[in-house]
Specification:
This protein has 2 domains: 30-155 and 265-271, no CATH class; 158-263, Alpha-Beta Plaits. A hairpin with a 7-residue loop joins strand 6 (203-212) and strand 7. By secondary structure, the protein is α+β, with helices and mostly antiparallel strands. It starts with 29 loop residues before the first helix and ends with a strand. An 8-stranded antiparallel β-barrel has the order 1-3-2-8-5-7-6-4, surrounded by 5 helices. It contains 8 helices and 8 strands.
């Protein structure tokens, strides 16, 4: 499928190069295994909605993995992914992948993310089998190993819990604010969140479960998406100044801890 890529896609982060093949008679480098797993999962998991305003975690019944990473050559990453997704193997892959630029990410040094998802775990298994012996996949590994260094990974399971106005997000390459948290009582949090999730004009939001993270015990996340930064930030600020938000904070403060925040800009969509 066509890929949209702004001309402003640049990165300045240094590259850590690794080899993907480990000979049996050599000691295995843990970083090689981590990078190989990163590349494999990019092909096995990809964001469900590739249409305007619906790219991933907000998708009904979508599962997948989101990666944060540094690259030295963003165009090389786009070329590698384009080549794979237009290959015979890629055209059979039921997933979608979204490349994003990190506008602000706190302590995480990542400059970009790739969020990948499927409509089901069965679809993920299908892709795994598809890529197991694929020369297209091997070519993808070779092209990617010179362009990316993973900094973190997160598995998510989105159950279609959406707020706001999805139809208001018409930009095919929107901006998104992520609020990652540790929740003690998911049911109580969901009940409280539903009361405030519809109050942000011009945005859509989604609550999703984090099934694996490896950092600080994060259990859930909220993604708030808008056409542009101005709409995103003004909508969040407006929503957080209401009496309903004050009541929301009283309810959730004892049961959730905000661990990380991040803002991204969509750059390109692959697959679908």
């Amino acid at each position: 499928m066509p890929v949209v890529l702004p001309s402003t896609t640049t990165l300045q982060q240094p590259l850590v190069r690794t080899r993907l093949s480990d000979q049996n008679n050599k000691k295995v480098d843990p970083m090689k295994n981590k990078f190989k797993a990163f590349l494999m999962t990019l092909l096995l998991t990809a964001p469900l909605f590739a249409t305007a305003g619906h790219h991933e975690e907000g998708a009904p019944s979508s599962v997948g993995v989101a990666y944060s990473f540094n690259v030295s050559d963003p165009q090389a990453v786009v070329t590698a992914m384009n080549t794979y997704w237009n290959s015979p193997t890629g055209k059979k892959n039921p997933g979608v992948a979204v490349l994003r630029q990190v506008i602000a990410g706190g302590e995480n040094p990542a400059t970009h993310t790739i969020a990948v998802s499927y409509p089901s775990y069965a679809a993920m298994d299908e892709a795994m089998a598809l890529n197991a012996n694929s020369t297209d996949a091997q070519s993808f590994y070779s092209a990617m190993q010179a362009a990316a260094k993973i900094t973190s990974r997160m598995a998510f399971d989105a159950g279609g819990i959406i707020g706001g106005d999805p139809m208001a997000v018409t930009n095919p390459l929107p901006v998104t604010a992520y609020f990652m948290m540790r929740v003690k009582d998911p049911s109580a949090y969901l009940t409280a969140w539903k009361k405030v999730s519809g109050g942000s004009a011009g945005t859509m939001s989604a609550l999703f479960a984090v099934t694996a993270d490896g950092e600080g015990g994060i259990t859930h996340g909220i993604a708030v998406r808008a056409n542009n930064m101005a709409t995103l930030m003004s909508s969040i600020k407006s929503n957080q100044s209401t009496p309903e938000w004050t009541e929301f904070m009283k309810v959730v403060s004892p049961i959730r801890t905000l661990e990380r925040r991040m803002i991204t800009k969509d750059l390109a969509v692959f697959g679908g």
